Amino acid sequence: AGDPAGPPRMSVAEAAEEAEVGASADLRERAAARVRQQLTASVNAPHNPRGVSVAGSVGATVRRATALLEVGLIERECEARLLLLALVGGEHLLLLGPPGTAKSELCRRLSTIARLGYFERTLTRFSTPEELFGPLSLAALERDEFRRATAGYAPTAELLFLDEIFKSNSAILNTLLTLLNERLFDDGAKRERVPLLSAVAASNEGPESDDLSALYDRFLLRRLVAPVSDDGVLELLLGGEAAEGGSVDAALPDLREALEEVRAAAPSVRLPRHVALLLRDARAFVRETGADGLGGGYVSDRRLRRSAELLKACAAAHGRDTVSVVDVAAVLPHVLWDTAEEAAALAEWVEDNALPDGGAEQLRFLLESVRSRAAAEAADDEEEEEE
Fold this sequence. Notes:
Elements: H1 12-21, H2 25-44, H3 56-70, H4 77-89, E1 93-96, H5 103-114, E2 118-122, H6 129-133, H7 138-142, E3 159-163, H8 170-182, E4 184-187, E5 190-193, E6 198-203, H9 213-217, E7 221-224, H10 230-238, H11 255-265, H12 273-289, H13 301-317, H14 325-331, H15 340-353, H16 359-386
Parallel strand pairs: 1-6, 1-7, 2-3, 3-6
Antiparallel strand pairs: 4-5
Helix pairs in contact: 1-2, 2-16, 3-4, 3-5, 3-11, 3-16, 4-5, 4-13, 12-15, 13-14
């Protein structure tokens, strides 16, 4: 659907600039009100036919996929959205949290829903390259070639899940880094391109040594996964469907095509100046805050640039031709931090600086409305299939 009838509204960028430089409190309040209006418009009417050619059905497909990922899982909405965003943006996602919090279940579900080639493995300090990349090919050895039989292993996967990622040892680390960053696999004397779209890693804690810092940096998206809250425990116990282990057999045949459309549209999305300023200021905030509040937090140029590209992918997934504050609020708290302390401080900074007064509460309400609508659509689809 196009823009509703009526006089043209101020863009998010214009409203944000007016809120920032307005000379009077009344002017700032009117600008903030317009930003809130844009928040509502961005969430409730995300499709914009100007510039980004992503059909409305694509956004509906992505919403149905998110709803299917969340079926039977309590308080895992954010993780499901980040998993799809990583797949859309071609980035990797790190989930940090205790065991039993549905981290691997989400990945298995996504592989089923999107019909992706999937491989998962739990790493230990004694894991060998054969466990991850496949055994040596006996046929190749007969030809005096050092190659692996990779079929069914990590080099052939489109979606990869690695549990206890920071227990990687030096025997697999370099090959894994090349696989994640360059999508290449050194198979003997040959370097081959792999079909990997996204990798998801899980760990109970962050890296313990500097040797793992390069591996840690490969995961642009990071999320702290907490156990179900006290308020959610009753729903977990009485909901009738287990929060982990409940299988989801439904597949969305058009999801893969929808994700490809979003990837093709993302480079055309415009990054407005006020969003670029927010990225700049967020990096400065992390640098000044650091893990111990004394400064020293580091965000590389590469991570900042890739964060901007991920914002574009998020906007494209919702049919927008310009990155909005909705995208900033959804992505920025999960891309620039290194420690749990930085994560909490950055989330608070985004809420205070990216949204006008009351905007965070309104955004949560609007996103909850979208999730409810997507869940209803998914339920209707299942009823139609049964009929």
